[in-house]
Please model this.
Amino acid sequence: MSLRVLNGFKFSSLKTPVHRLDPRAKFLLVIGIIVPSLLFTNIYLLAGLLLVLVPLLLVGRVTRRWVQSLRAGVFLSALIFVVNFFTGPLVNAVALTLRFLLLMTTFSFFFMTTSPDDLGLAIDKVGFIRWLSRRWLGYPNALSFTFTTAVRLVPTMAVDAQTVVDAQRSRGLELDKGNLLKRVRNYIPILIPLLLIAIRRSLELAEALEARGFPGKEGRTSLFELRFKPVDYALLAISLAGIVLSFWIFFHYRVPTI
Amino acid sequence: MGENGAGKTTLAKQLNGLLKPTLGRVTVDGDDTTKKSVAQLSRKVGIVFQNPDHFLFSETVREEVGFALKNYGFEPGVIVKQVERTLEALDLAHYADTSPFLLSGGERKRVALAAVLAWEPDYLILDEPTIGQDYQQKERLRSFILQLNSQGKAVVMVTHDVEFVAECNPKVVLMSKGRIVAQGQADEILSDDGLIEKASLVKPQMAKLFSQLSGFGFPRDVVDVHRAKMLLEEKLSEVKVRVAQSS
Model:
């Protein structure tokens, strides 16, 4: 089950208009949805925001994966609903469950349609991160590079983990045998090779990077430059307006749950 | 044998139940693999994985080799004896108390092999055993495989190393794109241009030589040096006799 949830946050390498949006604008859209959904518990608003995302998911052709991750998230939504049902009014429970689904959908939409490379480029453009990276690691791109590398290594590590499990099971290791302590100890033969593979790979990666001139000089250029298109400006404007409006309403009116 | 992604390792994993068939049946000594656990099947079918880094985790080589025996519930006395014997057989005895991580790549591969051989499975499956081994180690491995074979154990090898296979001349099953495309004796398969191409392999040197010598009345299906030498010697002595007669 847990793996299916993660599927909803994995990048799908397609080339739809949604994928081609500037990651910065898309991230602002995410914030533009999260801010009102956290400020208000109005059911219509939450449902409306969820409906706004559906066409975006359709255009990005990730609806099926989204549904998969939703199905896996049913348990948590049910839990949220039940807990809130017993501690407050029904509408409140509905609203909070909707909020959970909305937050999950928003983030999964972002990660499903934004390639780690684009995300790295976007992070690289943030002045504060560059400054921090230069202060800490002596090189402005280091932090964003670390981020992209980490994201990229996840699927590779998953494959390694499967192979290690297979190899140790072939040696008669039974993971779900014995009492709790034994079961925890059963994972030692899995974790040690995995850890060593990760360390070895990072050392190799460091050497390969150095062999290719990393970190290079200040002002490194990149093959793909992020550039705002008219769509991105529009998205940016809408998101910003949404955020500002949300705060304004939040401080001037009381919005009922229903 | 077969190209990358042909399904060799997938097939191997079916044999000890790591993968279960979605269609059809896989049986090991008459037992359906879907009805047995991996641990039960592994007791009979030992798989040595390609990369020892996925295998090794113990502090000493001795513990590493004894790990599976402990899992299978061998008596402590038997474990000690089996481990000693396996280490001896694979020329690892002097490393018994060394950490497997301090060994070279080739040695680690041998430790991985020892870790499986220790419980003496009836069927041994080796995934790419010759990678990273020098010539001497390959020779050792070959004689070791032949020895196991003569003890009545079946050895299945997944490999790209045509020369290694050619010298053993075993039964070869050729795979391509998830299907078995041919099976037969190595000298038939590895001298067949069409099949070699299909499985993206390269002919053994002897097969290359003899396909070019076929004009002189040599057979084409020669892959090992031994048989090649015999055929060439025969021809040479024939020629020698003819030269002597004509002069």
User: Anything to note?
Assistant: The beta strands of chain B are 27-28, 31-32, 45-48, 123-127, 154-158, 171-176, 179-185.
